[in-house]
């Protein structure tokens, strides 16, 4: 079973992170159709800006939680696939040599 972790950019510029076992296009359609009354319902339309696929749901859940805890700047670095910038954007920041 494949599970997709995804990030949507909402019409107000905010980001929504979620996961799904269904095809990602179908899930994005549900968000844009307002099928569920949740965060994105009043922030439509939404745009898919990032996906990662996992074989195990436990890994996808852990990744979704991790991303949800990130700052906006860190999410934007992930969306841009700027993986080298991610450590410097952590809440505590990098440990600098004295």
UniProtKB/TrEMBL annotation:
<dbReference type="Pfam" id="PF01541">
    <property type="entry name" value="GIY-YIG"/>
</dbReference>
<feature type="domain" description="GIY-YIG">
    <location>
        <begin position="1"/>
        <end position="77"/>
    </location>
</feature>
<comment type="similarity">
    <text>Belongs to the UPF0213 family.</text>
</comment>
<dbReference type="InterPro" id="IPR050190">
    <property type="entry name" value="UPF0213_domain"/>
</dbReference>
<dbReference type="InterPro" id="IPR000305">
    <property type="entry name" value="GIY-YIG_endonuc"/>
</dbReference>
<dbReference type="InterPro" id="IPR035901">
    <property type="entry name" value="GIY-YIG_endonuc_sf"/>
</dbReference>
<protein>
    <submittedName>
        <fullName>GIY-YIG nuclease family protein</fullName>
    </submittedName>
</protein>
């Amino acid at each position: 079973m494949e599970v997709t972790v995804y990030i949507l950019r909402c019409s107000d510029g905010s980001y929504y992170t979620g996961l799904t076992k269904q095809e990602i296009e179908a899930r994005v359609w549900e968000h844009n159709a307002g099928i569920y009354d949740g965060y994105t319902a009043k922030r439509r339309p939404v745009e898919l800006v990032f996906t990662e696929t996992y074989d195990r749901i436990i890994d996808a859940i852990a990744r979704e939680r991790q991303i949800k805890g990130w700052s906006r700047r860190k999410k934007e670095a992930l969306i841009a696939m700027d993986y080298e910038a991610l450590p410097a954007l952590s809440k505590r920041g990098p440990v600098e040599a004295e």
